[in-house]
Amino acid sequence: MNLVSIRIITDDVARLVAFYERVTEVRASWLNEDFAELRGASATLAIGSTRTVALFAPGSAFPADNRSAIIEFLVDDVDSAYERLTGFVEDFVNEPTTMPWGNRALLFRDPDGNLVNLFTPVTPAAIEKFTRSRPHGSPR
After folding, report:
1. What are residue 10's DSSP bridge partners?
2. Count of helices and strands (H, E) across the chain
3. Reading across the β-sheet that carries 29-32, which strands appear in turn?
4. What are residue 70's DSSP bridge partners?
5. Model pTM score
6. Which end of the chain is more exposed for a tag (fewer CB within 10 A), N or C?
7. What is the three-class DSSP state of 122?
8. pLDDT greater than 50 at residue 138
9. Best CA proximity match to 89, nearest among 126, 58, 69, 118
10. Distance from C-alpha of 16 to C-alpha of 2, rounded to nearest angstrom
11. Domain ranges, ordered by start, for the chain
């Protein structure tokens, strides 16, 4: 099994796509007005309108209702990302902090309240873990 995508359901696809394009510096691919994808080297962040929920199971997902998942992105320099996003991100949960497991992490909320973590491995063990787990030839 291979995790390929995380999908966020939202009432405002354009707003959330614009937010994640700015955060990730990745251009979204729009399939239609209700669905867009930001494709990374190892996974895709999909953003779908509440209108798409009925295609799966009506009432099975609700926008701006997540309080358990964190969307995480590996970045080259979390401190630089923090500087770049200051003034744009409205809800920082913490400033860059080195975690006990060796990642320097920045936690904030997207416009729908979903938690987003940008992190950079900084200890030798964390660096080794993410160097080993990256797909061959993928950017760091």
Report:
1. 49
2. 4, 9
3. 5-10, 44-49, 35-39, 29-32
4. 115
5. 0.91
6. N
7. coil
8. no
9. 118
10. 25
11. 5-133
Range scoring the smallest mean pLDDT among 106-110, 115-119, 130-134: 130-134
Q: Which amino acid is at 129?
A: K
Q: Give the H/E segment covering residue 97.
A: strand 97-98
Question: Which single residue is written with the structure tokens 């770049």?
Answer: 84
pLDDT score recorded for residue 45: 98
- Here the tokens at position 38 are 């930001």
pLDDT tens per residue, range 23-73: 999 999 999 999 999 999 999 999 999 999 999 999 999 999 999 999 999
Place of tokens 């707003």: 15
SS (H, E, C) 40-74: CCCCEEEEEEHHHHHHHCCCCCCCCCCCCCEEEEE
Q: CB–CB of 101/126 below 8 Å?
A: yes
d(CA 122, CA 131): 12
Q: How far apart are CA 46 and CA 35, in angstroms?
A: 7
Cα→Cα distances 18→14, 38, 88, 121, 130, Å: 6, 11, 11, 27, 28
CATH 3.10.180.10 describes domain 5-133: yes
According to the model, what pLDDT value does residue 131 have? Answer: 86
